[in-house]
Protein backbone atom coordinates (compact mmCIF):
# COMPACT_ATOMS: atom_id res chain seq x y z
CA UNK A 1 0.00 0.00 0.00
CA UNK A 2 2.83 2.41 0.86
CA UNK A 3 4.39 1.87 -2.61
CA UNK A 4 1.04 2.64 -4.29
CA UNK A 5 0.65 5.91 -2.33
CA UNK A 6 4.22 6.90 -3.13
CA UNK A 7 3.65 6.28 -6.84
CA UNK A 8 0.42 8.26 -6.70
CA UNK A 9 2.17 11.13 -4.90
CA UNK A 10 5.02 11.06 -7.42
CA UNK A 11 2.52 11.06 -10.29
CA UNK A 12 0.66 14.02 -8.79
CA UNK A 13 3.95 15.88 -8.29
CA UNK A 14 4.95 15.30 -11.93
CA UNK A 15 1.56 16.54 -13.14
CA UNK A 16 1.80 19.64 -10.93
CA UNK A 17 5.35 20.31 -12.15
CA UNK A 18 4.29 20.04 -15.79
CA UNK A 19 1.38 22.42 -15.17
CA UNK A 20 3.64 24.94 -13.47
CA UNK A 21 6.23 24.66 -16.21
CA UNK A 22 3.47 25.10 -18.81
CA UNK A 23 2.45 28.39 -17.17
CA UNK A 24 5.95 29.80 -17.54
CA UNK A 25 6.60 28.48 -21.03
CA UNK A 26 6.17 31.97 -22.49
CA UNK A 27 8.85 33.72 -20.47
CA UNK A 28 10.44 34.67 -23.79
CA UNK A 29 9.16 37.94 -25.28
CA UNK A 30 6.42 37.48 -27.88
CA UNK A 31 7.11 38.29 -31.54
CA UNK A 32 3.59 39.77 -31.89
CA UNK A 33 1.43 42.16 -29.88
CA UNK A 34 -2.36 42.41 -29.76
CA UNK A 35 -4.04 45.82 -29.37
CA UNK A 36 -6.91 45.57 -26.85
CA UNK A 37 -9.13 48.60 -26.20
CA UNK A 38 -10.26 49.01 -22.58
CA UNK A 39 -12.31 52.21 -22.29
CA UNK A 40 -12.56 55.86 -23.12
CA UNK A 41 -14.28 58.75 -21.39
CA UNK A 42 -15.67 61.87 -23.06
CA UNK A 43 -15.23 64.36 -20.22
CA UNK A 44 -15.82 67.33 -22.50
CA UNK A 45 -16.84 67.23 -26.17
CA UNK A 46 -15.45 68.77 -29.29
CA UNK A 47 -18.98 69.67 -30.43
CA UNK A 48 -22.17 70.68 -28.59
CA UNK A 49 -24.41 67.80 -27.49
CA UNK A 50 -22.66 64.72 -28.89
CA UNK A 51 -19.47 63.58 -30.61
CA UNK A 52 -19.52 60.63 -32.99
CA UNK A 53 -16.33 58.71 -32.29
CA UNK A 54 -14.36 55.75 -33.62
CA UNK A 55 -10.89 54.25 -33.04
CA UNK A 56 -8.31 53.18 -35.63
CA UNK A 57 -4.82 51.74 -35.55
CA UNK A 58 -2.41 52.79 -38.33
CA UNK A 59 0.86 51.19 -39.33
CA UNK A 60 2.90 51.30 -42.54
CA UNK A 61 0.24 53.45 -44.25
CA UNK A 62 -2.57 50.96 -43.52
CA UNK A 63 -5.50 51.70 -41.19
CA UNK A 64 -7.55 49.19 -39.25
CA UNK A 65 -10.85 50.09 -37.60
CA UNK A 66 -10.87 48.85 -34.01
CA UNK A 67 -14.09 50.33 -32.65
CA UNK A 68 -16.89 50.29 -33.56
CA UNK A 69 -16.46 47.83 -36.40
CA UNK A 70 -18.57 50.08 -38.67
CA UNK A 71 -19.84 53.64 -38.39
CA UNK A 72 -19.29 55.73 -35.28
CA UNK A 73 -20.66 55.77 -31.73
CA UNK A 74 -22.44 58.87 -30.44
CA UNK A 75 -21.20 59.95 -26.99
CA UNK A 76 -22.35 62.71 -24.66
CA UNK A 77 -20.40 64.63 -22.02
CA UNK A 78 -19.06 62.34 -19.22
CA UNK A 79 -19.94 59.13 -21.10
CA UNK A 80 -17.62 56.21 -20.42
CA UNK A 81 -17.54 53.53 -23.09
CA UNK A 82 -16.40 50.27 -21.49
CA UNK A 83 -14.85 47.58 -23.70
CA UNK A 84 -12.58 45.51 -21.40
CA UNK A 85 -10.24 46.02 -18.46
CA UNK A 86 -10.83 47.83 -15.18
CA UNK A 87 -14.10 49.61 -15.93
CA UNK A 88 -15.26 53.21 -15.76
CA UNK A 89 -14.25 55.93 -13.28
CA UNK A 90 -16.81 57.09 -10.73
CA UNK A 91 -18.88 60.07 -11.76
CA UNK A 92 -19.09 59.01 -15.41
CA UNK A 93 -22.08 57.67 -17.34
CA UNK A 94 -21.44 53.96 -17.93
CA UNK A 95 -22.35 53.16 -21.55
CA UNK A 96 -22.32 49.38 -21.23
CA UNK A 97 -20.10 46.70 -22.65
CA UNK A 98 -18.95 46.86 -26.24
CA UNK A 99 -16.67 44.60 -28.24
CA UNK A 100 -13.86 45.64 -30.55
CA UNK A 101 -11.44 44.27 -33.11
CA UNK A 102 -8.21 43.05 -31.44
CA UNK A 103 -5.60 43.05 -34.21
CA UNK A 104 -2.11 41.54 -34.11
CA UNK A 105 1.01 43.47 -35.09
CA UNK A 106 4.65 42.49 -35.36
CA UNK A 107 6.66 43.63 -32.35
CA UNK A 108 9.42 45.08 -34.50
CA UNK A 109 9.78 48.64 -33.21
CA UNK A 110 7.91 50.23 -36.15
CA UNK A 111 5.52 53.06 -35.33
CA UNK A 112 1.95 51.99 -34.53
CA UNK A 113 -0.50 54.88 -34.05
CA UNK A 114 -3.75 54.28 -32.14
CA UNK A 115 -6.15 57.20 -32.68
CA UNK A 116 -9.56 58.21 -31.32
CA UNK A 117 -11.43 60.22 -33.97
CA UNK A 118 -14.51 62.44 -34.05
CA UNK A 119 -16.49 61.60 -37.19
CA UNK A 120 -17.47 64.89 -38.87
CA UNK A 121 -19.04 65.73 -42.22
CA UNK A 122 -16.33 68.32 -42.82
CA UNK A 123 -13.48 65.89 -42.08
CA UNK A 124 -12.65 63.62 -39.18
CA UNK A 125 -10.70 65.14 -36.30
CA UNK A 126 -8.08 63.18 -34.38
CA UNK A 127 -8.98 63.73 -30.72
CA UNK A 128 -6.33 61.47 -29.17
CA UNK A 129 -3.19 60.10 -30.86
CA UNK A 130 -1.11 57.47 -29.06
CA UNK A 131 2.17 56.66 -30.83
CA UNK A 132 3.85 53.42 -29.78
CA UNK A 133 6.81 51.47 -31.08
CA UNK A 134 6.03 47.88 -30.02
CA UNK A 135 8.95 45.73 -28.95
CA UNK A 136 8.69 42.03 -28.06
CA UNK A 137 7.00 41.74 -24.64
CA UNK A 138 6.22 38.91 -22.23
CA UNK A 139 3.67 40.82 -20.09
CA UNK A 140 0.79 43.19 -20.85
CA UNK A 141 1.66 46.86 -21.36
CA UNK A 142 -0.96 49.47 -20.41
CA UNK A 143 -1.52 52.85 -22.04
CA UNK A 144 -3.62 55.78 -20.84
CA UNK A 145 -3.72 58.98 -22.79
CA UNK A 146 -5.53 61.99 -21.37
CA UNK A 147 -6.10 64.72 -23.97
CA UNK A 148 -7.46 67.99 -22.60
CA UNK A 149 -6.84 70.43 -25.47
CA UNK A 150 -8.72 72.78 -27.78
CA UNK A 151 -11.88 72.74 -25.66
CA UNK A 152 -12.39 68.97 -25.47
CA UNK A 153 -11.21 66.38 -22.95
CA UNK A 154 -10.98 62.62 -23.59
CA UNK A 155 -9.26 59.84 -21.66
CA UNK A 156 -8.37 56.75 -23.68
CA UNK A 157 -7.20 53.39 -22.27
CA UNK A 158 -5.85 50.34 -24.06
CA UNK A 159 -3.23 47.64 -23.65
CA UNK A 160 -0.81 45.58 -25.67
CA UNK A 161 -0.84 41.85 -24.99
CA UNK A 162 1.95 39.47 -25.98
CA UNK A 163 0.90 37.02 -28.71
CA UNK A 164 2.80 33.86 -29.61
* Cα gyration radius (Å): 21 Å
Helix content: 10-25%
- Chain-averaged pLDDT: 85
- Give me the CATH architecture, please: Sandwich
Largest sheet: 6 strands, mixed
What general form does the structure show?
A: globular
End-to-end Cα distance: 45 Å
CATH class division: Mainly Beta
Q: What portion of the residues fall into strands of 2 or more residues?
A: over 45%
Task: Name the structural class.
Answer: mainly beta
CATH superfamily: C2 domain
User: How many DSSP H or I helices?
Assistant: 1
Regions with little confidence, pLDDT below 50 for 5+ residues: 1-24
CATH fold descriptor: Immunoglobulin-like
Order of helices and strands: HEEEEEEEEEEE
Strands, total number: 11
Q: How many domains in all?
A: 1
Signal peptide: 1-27
Keywords: Signal
Can you tag this structure with a few keywords?
mainly beta, 48% strand, signal, 6-stranded mixed β-sheet, 164 residues, Immunoglobulin-like, disordered N terminus
